[in-house]
Amino acid sequence: MSVARVTEISATSTTSFEDAVASGISRATKTLRGVSGAWVKEHKVAVENDKIVTWQVNMMVTFVLED
Predict the structure, then answer these.
(1) Model confidence, pTM
(2) Which tens digit of pLDDT belongs to each residue from 23-65?
(3) Which contacts of 14-20 are long-range, i.e. CB under 8 A and separated by 24 or more positions?
(4) Sign of the CA dihedral 44, 46, 52, 53?
(5) What is the distance between the alpha carbons of residues 59 and 6, in angstroms, rounded to a whole number?
(6) Which of 7, 17, 24, 34 is disulfide-compatible with 11, CB 3.0–4.6 A?
(7) For 29-35, which contacts have Cβ atoms below 8 Å and span 24 or more sequence positions?
C-alpha cells in the first residue's frame, strides 16, 4: 500500500501555460521525490499594453511518500 501527499505550487512563464506547467513540474521534482502527477487548479495571465506578458498556473502536485 502506498500513501501520497499533495502540495500546491505556483509557476509562471513568459511563453505559455504549457511552459508554466512544465517548469513547475521540473522545479517540484528537484525537491520532491516520487512525483506521480499534478492537477492544474487555476490559470491566470498578466496583461500589459494589450498583450499577455506572463502565464501562471496553480497546481496541486501529488507525490508518493517513501517507507
Answers:
(1) 0.88
(2) 999 999 999 999 999 999 999 999 999 999 999 999 999 999 9
(3) 14/53, 14/54, 14/55, 15/55, 16/55, 17/43, 17/55, 17/57, 19/55, 20/55, 20/56, 20/57
(4) negative
(5) 10
(6) 24
(7) 32/7, 32/61, 32/63, 33/63, 33/66, 34/63, 34/64, 34/65, 34/66, 35/61, 35/62, 35/63
